[in-house]
Specification:
Strands 4-5-7-6-8 form a 5-stranded antiparallel beta sheet, with helices on one face. A 4-stranded antiparallel beta sheet has the order 2-1-11-3. 49% of the residues are buried. The protein has a domain at 79-247: Cyclophilin-like (Cyclophilin, Beta Barrel). Helix content is 9%, strand content 23%. The chain is mainly beta and 250 residues long. The longest helix is centred in the middle third of the chain and has 12 residues, at 101-112.
Length: 250
């Protein structure tokens, strides 16, 4: 069984070698571990991805970094809805602080700071037993983060990383959670229960947007530079903005 990592590099460039069932590497931040070497390395030609757009000029992230995790400021009695505007469509993610308070608090903080705006999707990967889209750095790869780590939630042994689940990437344990996260596009039954579940994406429009990103796997893909993990879509897929709203619980 092929293995992947969801770990990430610390402070930007340290590639963490924690091997897990092809999980996104949470480079010093949220990343599922993906095998460092793709099964094949197609030639990157920059062919467009069906249903996606190529912004001109290309957006750029704000470059913000933080020395420590944010204080707990979210309302744990509310539900938080994050709306991603991407070059492959809209994605909505619901987050319940009662399930993962530290992870939701960190994500909401970074989103409100505009940390994710203008960033590239660092990894899109589809294999026989899983498919993921990993993001959350300003480098456009799965290396780096927001400058801090925090102790995230340890998932229940019964956790299922099914289609639409959004989890934090890390370098081996929830204690290394950062800014990186990944969307599970196809069920990943073999993924170890060590990635904090951030939220859920389950509406048809959002899932269609993720499916379009996965189609990049059928387009020219270029491997990340030596020392990094995962596959970078070419042409790039961007998160244009992330807006968060607070909802009353049902």
């Amino acid at each position: 069984m092929r293995k992947l990592r969801i770990g990430g590099s610390i402070a930007g460039a340290v590639a963490i070698a924690v091997i897990l069932l092809i999980v996104f590497l949470s480079g010093g931040k949220p990343k599922p571990a993906a095998s460092t070497t793709p099964s094949s390395t197609p030639t990157a030609t920059g062919s467009p991805i069906a249903g996606c757009t190529e912004p001109s000029p290309a957006p750029t992230p704000n470059g913000k970094q933080y020395s420590k995790p944010p204080k707990m400021t979210i309302d744990k009695t509310k539900i938080y809805l994050a709306t991603f505007q991407t070059t492959c469509g809209v994605i909505k993610m619901r987050m319940d602080p009662k399930v993962a308070p530290a992870s939701v608090n960190s994500f909401v903080f970074l989103a409100k700071q505009g940390f994710y705006d203008g960033t590239k999707i660092g990894r899109v990967q589809s294999e026989s037993d899983f498919a993921i889209v990993q993001a959350g750095t300003q480098t456009g790869t799965i290396s780096g983060g927001a400058g801090y780590f925090y102790k995230g939630e340890t998932p229940s042994p019964t956790t299922a990383y099914t289609r639409g689940t959004v989890a934090m990437a890390n370098s081996g344990s929830p204690a290394s959670n950062g800014s990186q996260f990944f969307f599970v596009v196809h069920d990943w039954a073999s993924l170890p229960k060590q990635y904090s579940v951030l939220g859920k994406t389950d509406d048809a429009i959002s899932l269609a947007s993720l499916d379009r990103m996965i189609l990049a796997q059928g387009q020219p893909i270029e491997a990340n530079p030596p020392g990094s993990l995962g596959l970078s879509p070419n042409p790039s897929i961007y998160i244009l903005s992330v807006a968060v709203e607070e909802l009353s619980p049902r």
